[in-house]
Amino acid sequence: MFVSTMNDVPGAQVVRVLGEVSGITVRARHIGAQLGAGFKAIGGGELKGLTQQLQETRDEAYGRMCENAQALGANAVLAMRYDSNDIGGSYQEVVAYGTAVILQ
């Protein structure tokens, strides 16, 4: 599955637009990562546990978006974006979305 944040792909032609596709996931924050982040915040620096968790969350949403695009018969997703929210201070919501197309 070809995925791009661009609206067009140089050298390729969109022959059919299949519509918007998305993949969403909501995850609870890992208590260990939260505790580590609290201690790390005192001294500053990257919160590696939370960074890893967010990357895994994004990967899951991305994969679901690609599965939805394939189910429509797409071979590409254009104008792909991520959006995220914090829900109640304990949960992370991440959605990956874009336009499913057939490229030639």
UniProtKB/TrEMBL annotation:
<dbReference type="Pfam" id="PF01906">
    <property type="entry name" value="YbjQ_1"/>
</dbReference>
<comment type="similarity">
    <text>Belongs to the UPF0145 family.</text>
</comment>
<dbReference type="InterPro" id="IPR035439">
    <property type="entry name" value="UPF0145_dom_sf"/>
</dbReference>
<dbReference type="InterPro" id="IPR002765">
    <property type="entry name" value="UPF0145_YbjQ-like"/>
</dbReference>
<protein>
    <recommendedName>
        <fullName>UPF0145 protein FH969_01610</fullName>
    </recommendedName>
</protein>
